[in-house]
Automatic annotation (TrEMBL):
Protein name, UniProt field: Transcriptional regulator
CDD domains membership: HTH_LacI, PBP1_LacI-like
GO molecular function ontology, one term from the record: transcription cis-regulatory region binding
Keyword entries, A-Z: DNA-binding, Transcription, Transcription regulation
Lineage of the organism: Bacteria, Pseudomonadati, Pseudomonadota, Alphaproteobacteria, Hyphomicrobiales
Any single Pfam family the record assigns to this protein: Peripla_BP_3
């Protein structure tokens, strides 16, 4: 089937190509009779304008960017998909990139997005305090929404309330008699790690209990770090009785290390994952987790960015999502084995 072009529309309407183009692009300086004929020709021929080309001519790309640490992280798929659905409904394409948590790659991605003249960006960052990264973001001429990061007040921010989540997890473990609770998370120059440590300390303080600072490990968020830190901790004479995997990628490494040391969950050690996943649900026993709705967060990020594109001069906004503690079968009272399976939610 022949592709209908603007030349065909002009011929059908008996107008010049320039007149047809002005009608298609919404120009006001077109006589009503010509506009009526062009619109009728468009309908008769089933012509579909090339919106991408129109926006390029207007200096707009109709593209949105997303930068995440690792696009292979399964739980981020629902976040990206929800954002993509809203952007597509609004007529925007989506460019998704992974920074690998590297400053050089993040700077390069910001440079490329600026060259492409995208219209908005949802991003994390490898460092909240790095001056080069901050300058690169501030130099962008399109709106930026920061996801799960804490930066200056010039950008909209959507976060997970990790402090509240870890506070729930630690409080629950303390109620089971645990005192040596290992928290594994990333460097504290990043908001999620810093907030988790805050929630951990807050829970001990609320119970007027002393905590062992050597049980707070702020090294990295990945599975390899989870394995190394867990293996080292479990080899100690005074090993932890419970572990909180404070990162969405850490749980596989933690469970692998527990298996390698021939310990069992939960009879030897209790475990709480830092985010829900198929692994947490299908493991035997099923792993208790801190859970939040990535689909809802992705849609919220997209909606806020679209609103920012339409109203760039409004005050920056901040929104936080509260996690829930989902109790499954991976936690037990100290020296006790759970006798029945369960799943409950604590908010």
């Amino acid at each position: 089937m022949k592709r209908i072009t603007i030349r065909d529309v002009a011929k059908q309407a008996d107008v010049s190509i320039g007149t047809a183009s002005r009608v298609i692009n919404g120009a006001p300086n077109v006589e009503a009779a010509y506009r009526t004929r062009v619109l009728a020709a468009i309908k008769q021929l089933g012509f579909v304008p090339n919106r991408a080309a129109q926006e390029v001519r207007k200096g707009r790309s109709r593209e949105i960017g997303i930068i995440v640490r690792d696009i292979t992280t399964p739980v981020l798929a629902s976040f990206v998909r929800a954002a993509q659905d809203l952007f597509e409904e609004a007529g925007y394409g989506l460019l998704i990139c992974s920074s690998d948590n590297r400053k050089d790659r993040e700077l390069e991605l910001l440079r490329r997005f600026r060259q492409r003249r995208i219209e908005g960006l949802i991003t994390t960052t490898s460092s909240e305090v790095d001056a080069d990264l901050a300058q690169a973001r501030n130099d962008l001429d399109f709106p930026v929404l920061m996801f799960d990061r804490e930066v200056d007040g010039t950008h909209d921010i959507v976060q997970v309330d990790h402090a509240s989540g870890v506070n729930q997890a630690v409080t629950y473990l303390l109620s089971l008699g645990h005192r040596r609770i290992l928290l594994l998370t990333g460097p504290v120059n990043i908001y999620p790690a810093r907030a988790r440590v805050e929630g951990y300390k807050r829970a001990f303080a609320a119970q007027k209990l002393d905590l062992d600072p050597t049980l707070v490990r702020t090294v990295g968020f990945d599975a390899a770090t989870g394995f190394r830190e867990t293996a080292v901790a479990l080899e100690r004479a005074n090993r932890p009785s419970a572990i909180i995997a404070g990162g969405i990628d850490m749980l596989p490494g933690v469970l692998k290390a527990i298996r390698a040391t021939h310990l069992h969950v939960p009879s030897d050690i209790s475990v709480i994952g830092g985010a829900d996943s198929d692994l947490a649900l299908l493991a035997d026993p099923a792993i208790s987790v801190l859970r939040w709705d990535f689909t809802q967060i992705g849609a919220t990020c997209a909606r806020m960015l679209l609103e920012r594109i339409e109203a760039p001069g409004t005050e920056p906004r901040r929104l936080a999502f509260a996690p829930e503690l989902v109790v499954r079968d991976s936690c037990a009272a100290v020296a006790l084995v759970p006798t029945q399976k369960r799943e409950s939610r604590r908010k």
